[in-house]
Amino acid sequence: xxxxxSNNKINKATRHTSQNEGLIFEKSSPGKRAFxxxxxxxxxxxxxxxxxxxxxxxxxxxxxxxxxxEVVRHFTRLSTWNYAIDLGMYPLGSCTMKYNPxxxxxxxRLDGIASEHPYQPDELSQGCLRILQLLEKCLLExxxxxxxxxxxxxGAQGELTGLLLIRSYLERQGNPRKKVLIPDSAHGTNPAxxxxxxxxxxxxxxxxxxxxxxxKLRELVTDDVAAxxxxxxxxxxxFEERIPEIAQILHAKGALLYMDGANMNALTGITRPGxxxxxxxxxxxxxxxxxxHGGGGPGAGPVAMKKILEPFKPVPVLxxxxxGKLALDSQRPDSIxxxxxxxxNFGVLVRALAYILxxxxxxxxxxEDAVLNANYIRKGLxxxxxxxxxxxxxxxxxxxxxxxxxxxxxxxxxxxxxxxYGFHPYTTAFPLIVPGALMIEPTESESKEECxxxxxxxxxxxxxxxxxxxxxxxxxxxxxxxxxDEVAAARKPVxxxxxxxxxxxxR
Amino acid sequence: MAxxxxxxxxxxxxxxxxxxxxxxxxxxxxxxxxxxxxxxxELPKVGAKLEAGKSFGNVESVKxxxxxxxxxxxxxxxxxxxxxxxxxxxxxxxxxxxxxxxxKLANAADISALMDGTAYxxxxxxxxxxxxx
Amino acid sequence: MRYLPKxxxxxxxxxxxxxxxxxxxxxxCIPERYRLREALKLPGPFSxxxxxxxxxxxxxxxxxxxxxxxxxxxxxxxxxxxTDTILLRGEFLTSYTPYQAEITQGTLQAIFEFQTLxxxxxxxxxxxxxxxxxxxxxxxxxxxxxxLTGRRRVLVAKTLHPEYRDVLRTYAKxxxxxxxxxxxxxxxTLDSKALHSAIKDDVVAVVVQSPNFFGVxxxxxxxxxxxxxxxxxxxxxxxxxxxxxxxxxxxxADIVAMEGQSFxxxxxxxxxxxxxxxxxxxxxxxxxxxxxxxTLDTEGRRGFVLTLxxxxxxxxxxxATSNICTNQALCALAAxxxxxxxGKEGLREMAHQNLSKARFALGELEKxxxxxxxxxxxxxxxFSIELPRSVRMVNAELLKEKIVGPLALGTPYPELxxxxxxxxxxxxxxxxxxxxxxxxxxxxEKPL
Lengths: 507, 133, 448
Hints:
The complex is a heterotrimer of chains A (507), B (133) and C (448).
Chain A: H1 2-5, H2 47-51, H3 68-79, H4 102-108, H5 126-143, E1 147-149, H6 155-172, E2 179-183, H7 189-196, E3 200-204, H8 214-220, E4 225-231, H9 243-252, E5 256-261, H10 273-276, E6 280-283, E7 303-305, E8 317-320, E9 326-329, H11 346-359, H12 363-381, E10 397-400, H13 402-405, H14 411-420, E11 427-428, E12 437-440, H15 448-467, H16 469-473, H17 486-491, H18 499-505
Parallel strand pairs in A: 2-3, 2-4, 4-5, 5-6
Antiparallel strand pairs in A: 1-7, 6-7, 8-9, 10-12, 11-12
Helix pairs in contact in A: 4-11, 5-11, 6-7, 12-15
Chain B: E1 8-9, E2 14-19, E3 22-27, H1 29-35, E4 38-42, E5 49-50, E6 55-61, E7 65-69, E8 74-79, H2 82-85, H3 89-92, E9 101-105, H4 117-132
Chain C: H1 8-18, H2 48-60, E1 67-68, H3 81-87, H4 90-93, H5 105-122, E2 126-127, H6 134-149, E3 153-157, H7 162-172, E4 178-182, H8 192-198, E5 203-209, H9 220-229, E6 233-238, E7 255-259, E8 275-279, E9 292-296, E10 302-306, H10 313-316, H11 329-366, E11 372-373, E12 382-386, H12 391-400, E13 403-404, E14 407-408, E15 419-423, H13 430-445
Parallel strand pairs in C: 1-13, 3-4, 3-5, 5-6, 6-7
Antiparallel strand pairs in C: 2-8, 7-8, 9-10, 11-12, 12-15, 14-15
């Protein structure tokens, strides 16, 4: 594959050796061990007598039997097949792939932090509780809201928590109402969540500039509407300019405004959703607050709210007692209940607080740099790629593949070609209101140099799309595997290793 | 691919072939080409009652799901079991082996309001123009 | 600021390129009256050293130096340093969900191995790429059963973890599901008579935990027949994964919902953990969450992709099987590395040590006058004991001796104020068990 991959415009990456590695099960051989336990210091139980018919005498059939070096090499080799923020820019729109500070990992692993049991007495958990309290205060200051829960495990669970708060509040007013309004540009979790909260979804079409159609909204907000779920800035990276007015329209009809805080990286330190009229919102700590994505989680999705919703917060609630000691209080008769066992993804919360402490009020600079980077890239690529919505961009910019499509090259092809240039692709085909979307979010973590390399790469791919479209359409050319057959994977799913299928698959 | 003249077609790209009060229903060649490679088909059970205009199942490609709407009311008398193992029949032979269900129609006259082959071909030709405009 | 890679001159250069006079110009799309005029009131900025000091100070306010006999869904187990070494590799830690398969084969293959390990452990045919935790996995299993059966009545063992029941109730409330609890029998297992009289052909699923919240092992195979006869599905929840190294897998279950915290994850005051859903092949289309599948690339090489995505929220939106998006991939990786290290023999040995130590601890505690085993059914590494006085009072005494005593069952089960749930794992040294027994004896000898 020398010809298509050699390109003097690829400045960021060169080819390198990539080790092959099979499945761990294929290396297994009885008798090998990678972990030894200290000797048992009590009499050995007779498992067969103790457990009777429940006893699994032969151990777990199929479990690997390998040595320590093999385990280390196995996972190290696998790791080298991944792209990562630590390797370079990861411009996935809507995902906020920023630097994950290592000190966050260090403090989350401290003895006395990682070792704590959620059921230990509150008097032995004052450190954990003070961490939670400080994080609550910081997030309230950042969002301009009145109360917060840190329990939800991720953004989607935060959304659910928020809608259940709204539902409980409206029930208290006498009628939970039927519908939740959601713009067509929203994340897929919004409609999926509304249904779990017991609401019907009504989609709202964006107006021609990609904003909420306020006049249309005025018609749609009836006594049946519980809430509007809005993403601000929208998934186009554009600020909803009329959001205070939108809040007023809803409030006049007794409905509430939910804000998906996925894009808080555009607002932190600049403006506060609470001041804009938002009633309840979630934050994705794995986006704005730098906790690692780890290949798809764990995250955390705290929900901040106005005072009217506070009585309905999930239990337990963090309270400060008269003597200054902190405690977890589960006696909340109006609470929506629990959305997750224990006190949420505590380890993730620790990392987010470490991030906030490192910046302090200077977190505004991070927001400014994120917006600067997005606008710099927008400027650099304007005209090269089609810009379907021309309103000012905040932290991300959405182009379309309209120009390249004339040569049969679509957004997915361009994204795959970007891999050959040493970058992770941007988000493709989202938001749904932009056909063939290229959704680019550089975050504040990219230097000017990295942004320049990205712009050059995108320009070079645009040239290739015009002159040698086949090169782009068959990309990537330099990865250890080429495009994979997703159709076969879905038609005849192979979702686990089996000894029988092993010989067939082995190269 | 030709659109059989004796079939009837809906705007949602289903075809209907009525023989002796029983309608065979499928999706059109246009629909399968828009969807791309079909990976899974979800169909109602035999005996299920269909309501005209309501979704009775769906067709999945790798990155999309499309609802299939009942062109008329009736009761399901058969579902194409081959599709569970070989959903690709929907791509290779949408008007034949890729049929979805057979339905005993509540009122056979419902079907006559649908497009015939010529009208449907005209309909998709116009859709094509819209898309490229 | 050390995390930001731009000099003032570079910022200026970039602004000029954009054609903006100042950074504020880029925020003019936000109405002026809503823009903050003052800096946020946040603590900091702190250097790395200061950040570490802050958390070290908090750690000192916690339970360092205490020995704990708490389990109840969160367990202390040995963890190899290798697990964290792998987890801290930036290629895993700082990678995103593997939607771009060509450059995320590492994560994808690891997920595929995780799915395989979970199937082997649970005796099921297919497992997903992970859920948030055991409580949400259990709830999602019930919602999955609802989609499969179309029914509305859920029967839940009262011995299912109380917090798992709470979470289920929160989700069920607006899904039109009703949740009824099935009591426990005198030996601590599910009351099968009560189950038989409650189960009818309107039941979605019966949810049973094994070992259950009292530590007792349920007869899942026996329950399964009654459940299946009514056309309902059997959901088995597992909170202590290590038990599967010694116990027959719940192969009779239709869906297994498991907490994987025991596999290489620290207690971490309740999270992040890793939930697992495992089931039968024929139910895979109704599974929530991500799935990795094996396939070939255009040149015939084996590779892995996220598959059956059409079930998920980003495609199906309001008709999705679940609203879950983010899962717990890094925690699933920890479990994968940990279980690979342990391997077949290591897990068996670890399970056996748990059983032996718990058995030994029970023997030591039973020697104390007035202390009795509460339930007679077999247990794994947790067991319930009845004390002659309230557990809370006893625990207050134990705390003075730097022992975090066993869980007081009286809060979730008001009929059990004098019953304590003791957990002993391979990490509990014999000397600590003996110290606990001696302290308990002294506490009970104290005049009231």
